[in-house]
Amino acid sequence: MSLSPAHGLSDVSSPAVPAPLLVPGRPVGEALKAMAGHLLREAHDILADETREGATAVHDIRKELKRWRAMLRLLAPFLDESSERLRADARTLARKLTAARDAKSALDAFHDAVDATLHLPPTLAPRSLVTIHARLEELRRTNQATLWDEETRQQLSDYVTAAAYQVSHWTLADVSFGDLADRLATTYRRARRALPKNFETAQPEDLHELRRRVIEHRYQMELVEPAWPRLGRIWVDEAQRLRNRLGAYQDLFILSQMAAPHHPLAAWRSRLMPLIAYRQAEHAKAAARVAARLFAEPPKAFRRRLEALWSAQDGAAAG
Known about the structure:
Blueprint: H1 28-48, H2 54-75, H3 82-96, H4 98-116, H5 126-147, H6 150-167, H7 177-193, H8 204-224, H9 229-258, H10 269-294, H11 299-318
């Protein structure tokens, strides 16, 4: 497998190089370009590490692709049309890994549902629990072996190399923090609009769409977190809590699909669905509470807060 460093990735194995940060008083565009390059180097490290276990590698590279796509969307107005192709290709590659991740998600959801309902009258016999676990574990191993192979790793590596080359030619010198705040507020607004009126009666596809928007917001806010470590860390943590709840809800939905007729867990559908519904309701209630806190203020107020915090830090740096 050829995973040799390409243009923009020459220092991929230099652990001593610190991650670039947005720093008040310093050029924003240059920092964003450096951050994009660093993100791709991290992705390259994952792909080049042949000792990394398959499930871990799939999880890690999917995470990097989400971070990368969030950055591309954030910077879209400042880049040429090739950035849209980069984002589309990253989405296509991520979807190739979805089946490998879905089996793991269903397994996690099964444990979540069972553990959360231990205080309720049992609907599944111990033997059934063991059989379901074994079936999901086998499905996970099969999907992983099928989808995480040399060809997939090479496709991802080729993409990362090409993306790093494009990043090396980005021109972001004119990007100001005001521009960045505008884009962050746009993502915030998009996520806020995706909030359902009632979480408890929302459809799985609606909560899945909200989760996508929250993931994007979470990774974009991570970029500006170092500019005000205390508030930034709290904000990112809160967004991650919402993402976790929505992700757990989605995992349970995947589990329910595996219990549909003619699917691997169809024989236990009538006994699984009450557990799934109970746990989904709990996650939806918790997600509603976190979302109410995270998206309490209007987008314009959110943008003003970002600029005020940056200006305060900028002034302190200048002083």
